[in-house]
Specification:
- With about 240 residues, the chain is α+β, with helices and mostly antiparallel strands.
- The protein is built from 3 helices and 13 strands.
- Strands 1, 2, 3, 4, 5, 6, 7, 8, 9 and 13 form a 10-stranded mixed β-sheet that branches. Strands 10-11-12 form a 3-stranded antiparallel β-sheet.
- Strand 7 and strand 8 form a beta hairpin.
- The longest helix has 15 residues.
- The protein is globular, with a radius of gyration of 17 Å.
- It starts with 9 loop residues before the first helix and ends with a strand.
Length: about 240
């Protein structure tokens, strides 16, 4: 990426450096030739992209509203991402490829800084969050894929730690009671609701980025149906969680 045409955010530079050096997240090499986040291929594996950029004094994340024409989770808010293809060499490739297909985000604009521990859905899909930085927001020309995405919007990442515009429902799964969180965000004269898997991932991501827990009781489910022994077993990594979706 050419950094001569724009000024890189000092806040994001420090974040990038911290994550690359951290032992509590998957470190990402500066050498693009080295494959990252390699895991055994699973038929029910997916990856999503947590793409961050700075605007004003806030760090924002790119989100989408899924097309109402989709057969599953239609109209819901999600992070760009999807199922792993046979051609994908790792989770990073999956997340970047899906983001390009869904919202027209050029993979060369994204600087991947870490990969979070996987989340698992009720449908037994393993979802790997990949975190990256969009240094040059002006270079991104959003092009929503009409077959998959109804709209693209941005939300401040820190909102997922605040007890504002949030509600929750208590759920139970196999005797385990947990809270499902719903965040409302108004932008472009519309109100979007971020919940379930997406909200869970963003609470975890925001806790890492801002180095503090949420202001509310998260009480995520303890359900975990299998051990991801191929995830490098990095100590201190985000706890694996069950999120309803």
């Amino acid at each position: 990426m050419d950094s001569n045409n724009f000024r890189r955010s000092q806040k994001l530079l420090e974040l990038s450096q911290r994550f690359r050096q951290s032992k509590s997240v998957f470190p990402i090499s500066d050498d693009p030739s080295i494959g990252q986040s390699k895991r055994s291929k699973r038929p029910n594996q997916a990856a999503v992209l947590i793409c961050l950029f700075e605007e004003g004094d806030d760090i924002y994340v790119i989100l989408t509203q899924r097309s109402s024409k989709l057969s599953s989770h239609s109209g819901e808010v999600s992070l760009p991402g999807g199922r792993t293809d046979e051609e994908d060499t790792d989770d990073i490739r999956t997340a970047l490829r899906e983001a390009e297909e869904e919202i027209g985000l050029d993979p060369t604009l994204v600087d991947v800084i870490t990969v979070l521990e996987p989340f698992v859905t009720k449908k037994n899909i393993t979802v790997v969050p990949v975190m990256g930085i969009l240094w040059d927001k002006q270079a991104f020309n959003p092009l929503p894929n009409p077959g998959e995405v109804e709209s693209i919007f941005y939300a401040p990442l820190e909102m997922f730690l605040k007890d504002e515009n949030r509600r929750h429902e208590e759920k139970e799964h196999r005797g385990d009671k947990y809270l499902l969180h719903y965040f409302s965000h108004k932008t472009n004269n519309r109100v979007y609701v971020i919940w379930a898997l997406t909200a869970g991932i963003l609470i975890a991501a925001a806790s890492l980025v801002f180095r503090r827990p949420p202001e509310f009781q998260e009480r995520a489910s303890k359900f975990w149906h299998k051990n991801h022994s191929s995830s490098n077993n990095v100590p201190g990594i985000i706890e694996q969680k069950f999120i309803e979706t």
